[in-house]
Amino acid sequence: xxxxxxxxxxxxxxxxxxxxxxxxxxxxxxxxxxxxxxxxxxxxxxxxxxxxxxxxxxxxxxxxxxxxxxxxxxxxxxxxxxxxxxxxxxxxxxxxxxxxxxxxxxxxxxxxxxxxxxxxxxxxxxxxxxxxxxxxxxxxxxxxxxxxxxxxxxxxxxxxxxxxxxxxxxxxxxxxxxxxxxxxxxxxxxxxxxxxxxxxxxxxxxxxxxxxxxxxxxxxxxxxxxxxxxxxxxxxxxxxxxxxxxxxxxxxxxxxxxxxxxxxxxxxxxxxxxxxxxxxxxxxxxxxxxxxxxxxxxxxxxxxxxxxxxxxxxxxxxxxxxxxx
Length: 325
Hints:
The chain is of the alpha/beta class. It contains twelve helices and eleven strands.
């Protein structure tokens, strides 16, 4: 009798509890959401985040508030989200800078990218470009490689910061080409681009959005892109893979994640809303204005994906001597 009573009580409890959970998930969202952006207001990452927030708000029927949490190389924002309640009301939009590059160069990152987050979906990519100034005697990658091999460490290659995607891309190019070039790190894209235009530096790796205004002004010349396929924004510029470096495919990918443990039904609701948004012609057009190529993708094995890319970036950091500042 006691066993029967306990079984009945547990069954009754499950019915009430499960119904409560189902009701909570079925009525999601019941209040406003917050989307954490790990960059200052006004930049490309912030613009993309605000577009995503607005589209989610339209589709979910509740306000989606953007909170900028810059600092720590994006780790401050990521830690905040990793420690938030996994209820679907706190989200993070960021890139591989947060989820793999940090782990490649730092011993103590305040979160585990593969374990502490639940991916909603990838939202798109930002192409990296190898560029020189308009008056450079080097007209293509073959000539650059030949010059670098003839004079090891005499040529320099700039990035927009130590351990950034720009730095990693430059080291990947040098490693793949078997050349040595001096790394010149800048504190951001703008000062590096200004020095390139002023011919104070010869070669630089930057995002497609950063070079587009200078390309239109005729002050810079793109030599190649780092993506596996040509950029829709630079259709006439070859990929490094096309030029004989098939292992080069490195882009800045963006994604939206939630804290680990978010209920599957809520995760799927968010993913569906995000998929609809990214397929919208207006969103694709707004993304284009900041050089962001829309591309929705779910992650069937997020921990495996993160582990694989982190291992690749750690090896690249080891070969190139990339260390945190």
